[in-house]
Write a structure and sequence with these properties.
Blueprint lengths: L1 H15 L1 E3 H8 L3 H13 L4 E3 L2 E3 L5 H4 L3 H6 L2 H12 L7 E4 L3 H9 L5 E5 L2 H7 L5 E5 L3 E3 L4 E3 L3 H4 L7 E4 L3 E2 L4 E4 L2 H13 L2 E5 L11 E5 L5 E3 L6 H6 L1
Parallel strand pairs: 4-5, 4-9, 5-6, 9-12, 12-14
Antiparallel strand pairs: 1-3, 2-3, 7-8, 10-11, 11-13
Helix pairs in contact: 2-3, 6-7, 7-8
Length: about 240
């Protein structure tokens, strides 16, 4: 039982990068005292690092965590620009849209005209890009800022969006496999997208061809849940049937 719980705890730290003892207790459904004992055991084994009430895995490689925003920002520039321009036609005055922290959505945000519009996002960079728009209302999800990903996590989305109707959710993901499943690299990223995908009246998946028939670590949803896919290449026939 204890060994299994230790394994689950380590898996959670892999998924979320770092967690507080309170968060671990809630996710594992055990007491704070139990979590503290487990963390002490794992710390002695050199499997975790503890600091200011938080725990994380040591030596996490960048490839395991997903590419930092600055790297994603520079990759497939022409494709992302093309996709962003095509997505712009879906956005009209008075809409309430939600955007994820992908670099493609960041490109799109910079193209948005200064019209009456509400934008909800977990992206630090999108908030910055829209900060000088006079007519666009920006609502940041807040939460813990992961600087290298320019992304906020662990925000109580259900409470924040209780009184807000999302007309359109725009997002990207790590890949879509041959069966039409949407995948991402990290749980905190997937959870945001899964929630908004179900919450929004319509959704646009912004994805370049490098992500075709590619899986990840955490499932976001299915192509069938997406209103429209915008890409720089024709999507596979199997996706068309599902979409």
């Amino acid at each position: 039982m204890k060994t299994a719980r230790h394994h689950e705890l380590l898996q959670l730290l892999e998924q979320y990068d770092s967690l507080t003892t309170q968060q671990l207790a809630r996710l594992l459904d055990v007491s704070l005292e139990t979590v503290r004992r487990d963390l002490t055991d794992l710390q002695k084994q050199g499997k975790i690092l503890r600091q200011h009430g938080r725990a994380k895995r040591p030596g996490l490689r960048e490839a395991e965590a997903g590419a930092p925003f600055i790297e994603r920002q520079k990759s497939h520039l022409n494709s992302k620009a093309t996709i962003a321009h095509r997505a712009l036609g879906w956005i009209g005055e008075g809409m309430v849209i939600a955007m994820d922290a992908s670099s493609t959505c960041w490109y799109l945000a910079r193209l948005l005209p200064d019209i009456p519009l509400t934008v909800f996002t977990n992206s630090e960079r999108i908030c910055q890009a829209l900060s000088k728009r006079q007519h666009i209302q920006v609502i940041c999800s807040g939460g813990l800022l992961l600087r290298q990903y320019a992304c906020y996590i662990n925000a109580p989305l259900a409470a924040q969006l209780k009184e807000i109707g999302i007309d359109l959710f725009l997002f990207s993901c790590k890949g879509v496999d041959r069966h039409g499943a949407l995948w991402d690299a990290r749980s905190w990223n997937a959870e945001y997208k899964t929630f908004l995908l179900k919450r929004a009246a319509q959704s646009l998946l912004l994805i370049d061809k490098s992500k075709f028939e590619r899986a990840g670590d955490v499932k976001v949803g299915e192509v069938s849940q997406v209103t429209q896919i915008i890409s720089d290449a024709p999507m596979p026939e199997a996706w068309r049937a599902a979409n």
